[in-house]
């Protein structure tokens, strides 16, 4: 049995995660949620003085906004759409008959105006664009959302529905790159407080297809994405638990995000994978939080 499966089994056996019989879709215990709540308080403590505007979007977003984002050009393999029954009574009878004999009953489902949110920041850009030009100081936003990515796996750190906490900065190139570097330094310090050994490395998103290879190379060559890596299920392949992304002016151009002087806004974000960080803590310090080192408990619970 490999390390990924054995750690997942231990999480199930302890009740920290709840098996739903779908890989990457898990219930969470109160103890697991308590770790995430405590870590989010630590995020607030570290970043709270920056004065970010908090927004909380649901795990579904406007399909038209999703289409405009260009996500399907780069990551069609990860996307999830919401479909619903829109038929007649006769269609309903046919649907029930299909279910009764074990046939595919989803053929009559139709796409709705909702798409599952792929990243916490995606609903933010059209929201801010509606306000008009950003103020002279730019914009700083605090987000948290459930996100969906279709990549079923036995690795408990690769879930299909998971929570992402983000800070998104909008402003000049210098402004947002300074923001990104500040959070890279903060991220390392936060993990040090939690007794976790980390590495920050240049990274790339999982762009799809032949054209995606060029995008991967461009992203890495320009150091647009860094990840904070922590071993969870593999020491050889540590898991990305935080990401630090500089989008240049791509979102500014796409959503017409402008600064006070009319110039196109640059954007950057820092993302915390909340389930992944909780799993990293449980893997390194044990499945019983009461037994964690006192320094770690103090950093999380005071």
Fold topology:
Elements: H1 3-14, E1 17-22, E2 25-28, H2 30-47, E3 53-55, E4 60-62, H3 63-69, H4 71-74, E5 81-85, H5 89-100, E6 109-116, H6 124-129, E7 139-148, E8 161-171, H7 173-193, E9 199-202, H8 209-221, E10 225-230, E11 239-248, H9 250-255, E12 266-273, H10 274-285, H11 294-301
Parallel strand pairs: 3-7
Antiparallel strand pairs: 1-2, 4-6, 5-6, 7-8, 8-12, 9-10, 10-11, 11-12
Describe this structure in a few short sentences.
This protein is of the alpha+beta class and 302 residues long.
Question: Can you characterise this structure?
Answer:
Pfam families: tRNA-synt_2b. Residues 147-293 form the Aminoacyl-transfer RNA synthetases class-II family profile domain. The chain has 302 residues and is α+β, with helices and mostly antiparallel strands. It folds into two domains: 3-80 and 118-202 and 217-301, Bira Bifunctional Protein, Domain 2 (BirA Bifunctional Protein, domain 2); 81-115, no CATH class. It is 39% helix and 26% strand. It has eleven helices and twelve strands. It has helices spanning 3-14, 30-47, 63-69, 71-74, 89-100, 124-129, 173-193, 209-221, 250-255, 274-285, 294-301; strands spanning 17-22, 25-28, 53-55, 60-62, 81-85, 109-116, 139-148, 161-171, 199-202, 225-230, 239-248, 266-273. It has a seven-stranded mixed sheet with strand order 3-7-8-12-11-10-9. Strands 4-6-5 form a three-stranded antiparallel sheet. A hairpin with a 2-residue loop joins strand 1 and strand 2 (25-28). Helix 2 crosses helix 10. It is globular, with a radius of gyration of 21 Å. The chain starts with a helix and ends with a helix.
């Amino acid at each position: 049995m490999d390390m990924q499966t054995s750690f997942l089994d231990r999480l199930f056996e302890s009740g920290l995660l709840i098996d739903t019989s779908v890989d990457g879709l898990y219930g969470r215990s109160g103890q697991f949620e308590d770790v995430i709540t405590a870590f989010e308080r630590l995020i607030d403590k570290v970043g709270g003085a920056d004065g970010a505007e908090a927004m909380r979007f649901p795990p579904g977003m406007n399909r038209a906004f999703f289409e405009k984002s260009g996500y399907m050009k780069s990551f069609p393999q990860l996307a999830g759409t919401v479909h619903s029954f829109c038929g007649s009574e006769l269609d309903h009878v046919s649907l029930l008959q299909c279910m009764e004999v074990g046939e595919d009953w989803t053929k009559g489902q139709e796409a709705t105006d909702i798409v599952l949110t792929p990243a916490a920041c995606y609903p933010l850009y059209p929201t801010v664009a509606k306000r008009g030009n950003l103020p002279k100081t730019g914009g700083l936003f605090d987000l948290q959302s459930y996100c969906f990515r279709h990549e079923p796996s036995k690795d408990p750190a690769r879930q299909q529905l998971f929570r992402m906490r983000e800070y998104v900065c909008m402003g000049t190139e210098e402004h947002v790159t300074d923001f990104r570097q500040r959070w890279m330094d903060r991220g390392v310090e936060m993990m040090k407080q939690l007794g976790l050994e980390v590495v920050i490395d240049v990274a790339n998103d999982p762009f799809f297809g032949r054209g995606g290879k060029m995008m991967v190379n461009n992203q890495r060559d320009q150091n647009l994405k860094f990840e904070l890596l922590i071993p969870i299920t593999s020491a050889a392949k540590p898991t990305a638990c935080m990401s630090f992304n500089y989008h240049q002016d791509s979102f500014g151009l796409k959503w017409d995000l402008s600064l006070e002087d009319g110039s196109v806004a640059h954007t950057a974000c820092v993302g915390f994978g909340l389930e992944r960080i909780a799993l990293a803590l449980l893997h390194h310090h044990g499945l019983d939080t009461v037994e964690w080192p006192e320094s770690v408990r103090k950093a999380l619970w005071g």
